[in-house]
Design a protein that fits this description.
Radius of gyration of chain B: 13 Å
Order of helices and strands of chain B: EEEEEEEEEEE
Number of strands of chain B: 11
Distance between the termini of chain B: 40 Å
Number of strands of chain A: 11
Structural class of chain A: mainly beta
Structural class of chain B: mainly beta
Shape of chain B: globular
Largest interface: A-B, 26 and 27 residues
Shape of chain A: globular
Oligomer: heterodimer
Strand content of chain B: over 45%
Number of helices of chain B: 0
Largest sheet of chain A: 7 strands, mixed
Helix content of chain A: under 10%
């Protein structure tokens, strides 16, 4: 069964450093998302991506964040200058048709900023 | 602000019993509703989707939707210890155009052998 994959599973970085989180969505899906979950808190939407551009972003997704689909399979989230409060689980999700179809989540990347 | 509310629990049921999980949402324009299961330290795993008023059954799981009351529920029949997890209610609140999900905080379910 196709699944969303994410790398790395755990990333430790120092405050102020840049990190890139990688995702490979399910191959025939067209809509891609990043969510994050701070420990003990709810899953929060960051950004949605369709047709090689951002569809919508939340207030969390400020200028420090960017997304890219560098090739036909990968989908990346970049945090330019990490802060302590960026420590969280970051989940990539994908769906074949926006809105009314199910989103499937990857296993997540645990980001720890020290 | 668009909100999805769930009772955080923990909800404790004996093995074999029915577990009932509830969720309310604030945006009347919501069209798509999902239940995810999340084990500790893991990612959300989709269990059910529901789009129309009424019941939808899949194995031991039944999702119920009442748009007039802005209420979604999940019933788990014949609960097993392996069902012990946090159950997340997620709602697409923007009329389906972008698919961004708003999640509740989740209800922690504990099934006792």
């Amino acid at each position: 069964e196709p699944e969303v994959t994410q790398t790395p599973s755990h990333q430790v970085t120092q405050m102020g450093q840049e990190v890139i989180l990688r995702c490979v969505p399910i191959s025939n899906h067209l809509y891609f998302y990043w969510y994050r979950q701070i420990l003990g808190q709810k899953v929060e939407f960051l950004v949605s991506f369709y047709n090689n551009e951002i569809s919508e972003k939340s207030e969390i997704f400020d200028d420090q964040f960017s997304v890219e689909r560098p090739d036909g399979s990968n989908f990346t989230l970049k945090i330019r200058s990490t802060k302590l409060e960026d420590s969280a689980m970051y989940f990539c999700a994908s769906t074949w048709l926006s809105g009314r179809t199910e989103q499937y989540f990857g296993p997540g990347t645990r980001l720890t900023v020290t | 602000q668009k909100e999805v509310e769930q009772n955080s629990g923990p909800l404790s049921v004996p093995e074999g019993a029915i577990a009932s999980l509830n969720c309310t949402y604030s945006d009347r324009g919501s069209q798509s509703f999902f239940w995810y299961r999340q084990y500790s330290g893991k990612s959300p795993e989709l269990i059910m989707s529901i789009y129309s008023n009424g019941d939808k059954e899949d194995g031991r799981f039944t999702a119920q939707l009442n748009k007039a009351s802005q209420y979604v529920s999940l019933l788990i029949r014949d609960s097993q210890p392996s069902d012990s997890a946090t159950y997340l209610c997620a709602v697409n609140t923007d009329g389906g155009s972008q698919g961004n999900l708003i999640f509740g905080k989740g209800t922690k379910l504990s099934v006792k052998p």
